[in-house]
């Protein structure tokens, strides 16, 4: 899975820590999601959707090996 979380976060001028607080996770979790080391749960994806004001599939995409 690929994502554009870092870009979406930058658009809103949020640090990893800021975004983490908004959705109730650690900064390390945001870092892992951005680095494609961790695929978030549906609940976390929906929380990100609320923060970004966009559908989940606007910032998460399946890659060819998914």
UniProtKB/TrEMBL annotation:
Keyword entries, A-Z: DNA-binding
A Pfam family this chain is assigned to: HTH_3
SMART domains listed in its UniProt record: HTH_XRE (SM00530)
Keyword Acyltransferase: no
Molecular function (Gene Ontology), one example: DNA binding
Domain HTH cro/C1-type: 5-59
The organism's place on the tree of life at top rank: Bacteria
Record's keyword annotation contains DNA-binding: yes
PANTHER family given in the database record: HTH-TYPE TRANSCRIPTIONAL REGULATOR XRE, TRACRIPTIONAL REGULATORY PROTEIN-RELATED-RELATED
Protein name, as recorded: Helix-turn-helix transcriptional regulator
Native source species: Psychroserpens burtonensis
């Amino acid at each position: 899975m690929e994502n554009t979380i870092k870009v979406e976060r930058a658009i809103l001028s949020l640090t990893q820590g800021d975004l983490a607080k908004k959705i109730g996770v650690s900064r390390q979790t945001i870092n892992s999601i951005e680095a494609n080391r961790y695929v978030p749960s549906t609940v976390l994806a929906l929380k990100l959707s609320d923060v970004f004001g966009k559908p989940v599939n606007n910032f998460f995409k399946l890659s060819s090996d998914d």
